[in-house]
Amino acid sequence: MLRVAEQYVGTDTGRQRRANEDSLLARSPLFVVADGMGGAQAGEVASRIAVESFQHGLDDATDAEGSLAAYAHAANDRIHELSHASAEHAGMGTTLTAVYVGAEEVAIAHVGDSRAYCLRDGELLRLTDDHSLVDELIRQGKLTPEEAVEHPQRSVITRALGPEPAVEIDTRSFRARDGDVYLLCSDGLTTMVHDARLAEILLDHPRLRDAGETLITAANEAGGRDNITVVLLRVEQLQIAVSSPVDGPATLTGTPALGDGVSALGAETGGLPASAPDEDASIDDPPPEHPVAARSVTPRRPRRPAPGTPPKARRKRGLRRAVTGAILLGVLALLGTGAYVASQSVYFIGTNSRGLVTLFNGFPYELPGGVKLYSQYFVSGVSASSLSAQRRRTLLDHSLRSEEDGAELVRSLELGQLE
Questions:
Q1: Would the CA dihedral through 32, 33, 34, 40 be positive or negative?
Q2: End-to-end Cα, the chain, rounded Å
Q3: Per residue, what are the HEC states of the chain?
Q4: Which of 142, 178, 244, 340 is a plausible cystine mate for 237, CB 3.0–4.6 Å?
Q5: What is the mean pLDDT of the chain?
Q6: Neighbours of 76 (CB within 10 A)
């Protein structure tokens, strides 16, 4: 069984765009990147609709490809309908690359020229084909990859969500391995940084936060012609240790990829959500401390069986202990699951490691051992340093909000309408 052991998400406006039309969703085991098009806020709307279609997780994880495709088709319907209902949204569309980490495989749904890669054994494997004019010409042998880099129509895509009432969604399942690193990204990265350099950066930076930040920096240093969005995740195999009933119940090493719409806690999210109480405060400061009481427990020595205790009685006693332990573990698991589910209904606003105003899903706490009770939900293109001290205090105070309230505040901020 697989789990997401580490993750990073980051997005950047780039050096030649005034707004960020990319959107992303990172709620382990589901990850989505969308790159909007249409201009005048329309592209931003299209990409947001695309990722919002996935926000509740998969209905049927046994058919992950089918579920991903169904959400993509639903997004296409919404975007297409809105593009025809409003002149300001006419012609809008978006790319989409979605990845779901299942028990043994990674399922992928894709349309457009955002990409998915897998780094395995030092080799970077591309898992998606671009639906773009230049890639079509490359596949037909009419253009070389080198010629495509500077082709005047390199940004023309042949398939996207929104422009047409129906769209073909590419899906596939990829057999995952322990230690695989998956990269989802918009073309703002891949048009600036070639695949060999992507692999080099990932190999040089084992920690995903470092790798993600370096990828974004490399794209900007190469020109930053477009918005840049990077999602990285590392998977590991869950080890199952089986013991006899007398010794105790079977144990699991690690934590599996969580269920639909639930974020993996303790995963790398590109920086702690920081509040900013004053102008001098660091935007990378962690949230306020919320110490968790802990007490030390001295384990009891196992009692030796009394002399002459029949083996059958000892086996029964061991079995009772095993059953009791299993029940206790089950209760703890239910309580933990309840806490995870509760955390998915609340949101707060802070900043990520790049100092961008970010909407987080969960509670603004970090437990001992680096276990985070939150994950990044949406990263804006607004730097906290551009806000006044008063605005930072009122906006980035980690107050718990509903998804609708938090998203509306961030969107208003991006549009410059927040008073």
A1: positive
A2: 49
A3: CEEEEEEEEEEECCCCCCCCCEEEEEECCEEEEEEEECCCCHHHHHHHHHHHCCCCCCCCHHHHHHHHHHHHHHHHHHHHHHHHHCHHHCCCEECEEEEEECCCEEEEEEECCCEEEEEECCEEEECCCCCEHHHHHHHCCCCCHHHHHCCCCCCCECCCECCCCCCCCEEEEEECCCCCEEEEECHHHHCCCCHHHHHHHHHHCCCHHHHHHHHHHHHHHCCCCCCEEEEEEEEEECEEECCCCCCCCCEEECCCCCCCCCCCCCCCCCCCCCCCCCCCCCCCCCCCCCCCCCCCCCCCCCCCCCCCCCHHHHHHHHHHHHHHHHHHHHHHHHHHHHHHHHHCCCEEEEECCCCEEEEEEEEEEEECCCEEEEEEEEEEEEEHHHCCHHHHHHHCCCCCECHHHHHHHHHHHHCCCCC
A4: 178
A5: 78
A6: 27
Q: What is the mean pLDDT of residues 39-60?
A: 88
Whole-prediction pTM:
0.63
Distances (CA, A) of 144 to 63, 134, 135, 148, 193: 37, 9, 9, 6, 17
Rounded Cα distance, 214 and 137, in Å: 31
Length of the chain, in residues: 419
Amino acid at 239: Q
Residues of the chain with CATH 3.60.40.10: 2-239
Residue of 313 and 178 predicted with greater confidence:
178
Question: Quick one: pLDDT at residue 250?
Answer: 40
Domain 2-239 carries which CATH code?
3.60.40.10
Model pLDDT for residues 138-170, shown as the tens digit of each residue: 777 777 776 666 665 666 789 999 999 999 999
Who contacts 152 (Cβ-Cβ below 8 Å, separation ≥6)? none
Q: Say how far apart CA 299 and CA 324 lie, in whole Å.
A: 17
Contact 375, 264 (CB under 8 A): yes
Is the model's pLDDT at 293 over the cut of 60? Answer: no
Cβ atoms of 56 and 30 closer than 8 Å:
no
pLDDT per position as a tens digit, 367-400: 776 677 888 877 776 777 777 777 887 888 888 8
